[in-house]
Amino acid sequence: MRQVESERKFDIGEDDPLPALGGLLGVGQAREHRLRAVYLDTRDLLLVRHRITLRRREGGADEGWHLKLPRPDGTRLEVHAPLDAGPGRFLVPATLREEIAGVLGEEWPGGVDGVLLPAATLSTHRLEVDLLDPQGRVLAQLCDDTVTALPAGSTWRELEVELVEGEEELLDRVVDVLAEQGVTVADAPSKLARALGDRPRRVAEGEAASRTGPAADVLHDYLARQVAVILGREADVRADAPDAVHKTRVATRRLRSALRTFRRLLDREVTDPLREEIRWFAAALGEPRDAEVMKERLLAALDDLPADQLVGPVRERVGRELDRRHAAAHAALVQVLDSDRHRALVDGLLELLAVTPWRGRARKSAVKVLPPLVARAADRAELEWAAATEVEGEERLHLLHETRKRAKAVRYACEALAPSFGEGAARQAEAWESVTETLGGLQDSAVGTRWLRELERAADEAGEPTFTYGVLVGGERARACEDEQGGLSLVEQALESTTR
Fold first, then answer.
1. Of 415, 391, 413, 378, nearest to 492 (Cα)?
2. pLDDT per residue as tens, the chain (500 positions)
3. How far apart are CA 404 and CA 417, in angstroms?
4. Is the separation of the CB atoms in 499 and 371 below 8 Å?
5. How many whole angstroms separate alpha carbon 472 and alpha carbon 454?
6. Do 181 and 235 belong to one domain?
7. Beta carbons within 10 angstroms of residue 100's beta carbon
8. 57 and 91, same structural domain?
9. How far is it, in rounded angstroms, from Cα 211 to Cα 310?
10. How many angstroms separate the CA atoms of 231 and 222, rounded?
């Protein structure tokens, strides 16, 4: 459905009486509604900057998807779609995406930058009154709205008068009548503009959330970045485009880690089940990625061998077998993407951004709240590292694997803070990245050794020489020893760099 919207908004105090319209209009039927509107935009608020509004509204007579497009005369063309028109609760219907693309043209980005995410959520208690002419025809509607905006948590009251069958001049007369009673036209052009505050300016100027502002703002920006990657790369993941699975998998890890590291600021009854679903999806991403990594690793190791140590069709078997594993794992991943469980996960991720379940000190200053939580993550890494230095053999390898997981949590937490906290947090993130990359070599060696043994058995059953597989296993063990020693040293350096 398409219609032209013409309205005026007015500021009014929380306890002020509803103004009278004198002899201008009669008052008809009144209705009460509870509305919930989730407004969506790109992370850089491209729609807002082009005066385009996209929302998903629940409640009221016109619930559904609403897309408002600007017109030269100052009115807006409103395009509607049913609530269930999209592939999920918050994934935008294709018809509305096409409308937006038609308006923005070449400015409409693709991939991650074009993902439409919840930018604000407004809960409105509305008293809606019909305004009538002497014959009882509805010329306009007066809406008395009390609005609560998320994620800011601010509340205000406003009046809205929207034409139904009346002419534009009627709105001008309403403005005059209300002005006589001290009710002025609202400064903010829309509820969304008021909810966003100075965020459009901050985004336009490339500013991150302030470290002196709420911790929730810093974390929400980070969570949104990860969700944008997960959604924005889905088409590339399906097509098995280079690096798409890897980057999506990293985003799932960052997201899960943030929900754990900063769990004191979140309602865990909401986020813990979501973390488990993210873990499930990450595991599906891990299978094709592991085959991809192992193929690159083992073929590179073969390239480094002297010719006399390359015996039999090792390269062919490695490439063929790992290609087979990758193809099977990618096919299984596509099935996951097509599943109801994945669609529910996507809805859960978008709901997380729309109504983030903040608690505790989330609204307090980021500079006071977030660094102690990063320090706690570093303490957990230090405990595992200290325990690893006291033992040898398989037990040490297990504890270093745990150290790596804890180090990743610190690294991702520092990355979350870096845009707002600056170079110090970025340097700490780099220090912990060195730890995770080096200790990650231990895990890669363990996986590589296991897969080489499987390939060796298959080669033996086929009557092929197995000498080279043993050489490769020896190489993996040597690299593991180097990574073990290097990792222990790098953890110590990273701990020294982390403010606690």
1. 378
2. 666 668 889 999 988 998 887 678 888 888 999 999 999 999 999 999 899 999 999 998 889 999 999 888 777 888 999 999 988 889 999 999 999 999 999 898 888 999 999 999 999 999 999 989 888 899 989 999 999 997 667 899 999 988 888 888 888 888 888 888 888 888 887 888 888 888 888 888 888 999 999 999 999 999 999 999 999 999 999 999 999 999 999 999 999 999 999 999 999 999 999 999 999 999 999 999 999 999 999 999 999 999 999 999 999 999 999 999 999 999 999 999 999 999 999 999 999 999 999 999 999 999 999 999 999 999 999 999 999 999 988 898 899 999 999 999 999 999 999 999 999 999 999 999 999 999 999 889 998 999 999 999 999 999 999 999 999 999 999 998 998 888 888 988 899 887 65
3. 20
4. yes
5. 13
6. no
7. 20
8. yes
9. 57
10. 15
Phi, psi of 38 (to 5 degrees): -105, 120
Q: Is 306 helix (H, G, I), strand (E, B) or coil?
A: coil
* 312 and 358 together in one domain: yes
Q: Are residues 180 and 229 in the same domain?
A: no
CA 70 to chain centre: 28
Identify which of 140, 8, 5, 126 has the alpha carbon closest to the alpha carbon of residue 61. Answer: 126
Residues 400 and 332 in one domain: yes
CATH number of the domain to which 482 belongs: 1.40.20.10
Token pair in block for residue 292? 């991809």
Half-sphere exposure of 388 (CA within 13 A, CB side): 25
Q: What is the CA radius of gyration of the chain?
A: 29
| Domain limits for position 194 | 2-200
Q: Which amino acid is at 366?
A: A
Number of domains in the chain: 2
Residues 355 and 410 in one domain: yes
Measuring CA to CA, how many Å separate 418 from each of 79, 181, 218, 352?
A: 40, 50, 10, 22
**What's the pLDDT tens digit per position in 179-233?**
888 888 888 878 888 888 888 888 888 889 999 999 999 999 999 999 999 999 9
Q: Does 107 reside within a domain? A: yes
Residues composing the chain: 500
Q: What is the DSSP letter of 390?
A: T
Residue 210 lies in a domain: no
DSSP-derived 3-state class of residue 66: strand
Sheet containing 117-132, strands listed edge to edge, beginning at the edge strand earlier in sequence: 2-5, 76-81, 64-70, 53-58, 26-41, 117-132, 138-150, 155-163, 7-11
Gap between the Cα atoms of 379 and 168, Å rounded: 65
Dig out the tokens for 170 from the structure: 């009627």
